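To whoever is on call:

I kicked off a structure prediction for a single chain this morning and the downstream step that reads the tokens threw a length-mismatch warning. I double-checked the sequence; it's 134 residues and nothing unusual in it as far as I can see. Pasting both halves so you can look.
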Amino acid sequence: MAGKKRSKKDPPEFRNPQLGDALQTQDMAAVAFALRHGPTVVPMMRPGQRDNPRDGGEVWTYRDPKTGDVALLLFSDATHQPEALPPTVALQSPGWLRAFLGTHEAEITTVFLDIAGPHPMQATPADLIAALDA
């Protein structure tokens, strides 16, 4: 049933349909709007502890063994995450994403959105920070 409401016992949906639509058009303004107003699916090495709100877990990043460059991978939907990545994901808020990028901007070389498709996009951390601050 398309109009069915989720009950409190249904698991959360790990997706941002607005971000998926924006990636489909490859419109950076629409991507920026979606990132500012909705969650982002982030792969996690270790999830945060539920009983400790200060423990946000450990975000998974990719380090190129040849160059040492670090990439952050973000997804519009958990189903777009490649199987080679850790299976744990978190649904992070725009505020979290802005804080994370601000803290790690010097380390992260590039950010990939839906790297395995269906509509991948690449940006610098500075570009995403500017989009989130707009």
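Update from on-call: the warning came from a stale cache, not from the record. Cleared it. Sanity check on the structure: The chain has a mean pLDDT of 88.
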